[in-house]
Amino acid sequence: MATTRIFALFNLKLGQDPAAYEAWARSTDIPAVRALGSVDDFQVAKVEGLLGSDAAPPYDYVETIDINDMEQFFAEVSTPEVQKIAGEFQSMVDVTFLVTRSL
Question: What pLDDT, on a 0 to 100 scale, did the predictor assign at position 22?
Fold first, then answer.
């Protein structure tokens, strides 16, 4: 069965402190998303550069969310608890979400 993977590519909004965002991600976002039954894996990575280039990368962070059941995922992320966390995330970042499936 094909896996659905969401990539979240994002930069912090102007004025956001990277250390504060990363502390929040470790204490709140990562444990909450990993606890969802529809999520097999959730990783947050700080982008350190572009392979083979000295140019600045277009994004500061990348998240990957491996989903085993999209219907369940949408139900779980609709709860007030997860919506609160999502709102906190959205207040700190400018994000693009890509929904993919493995070949």
Answer: 98
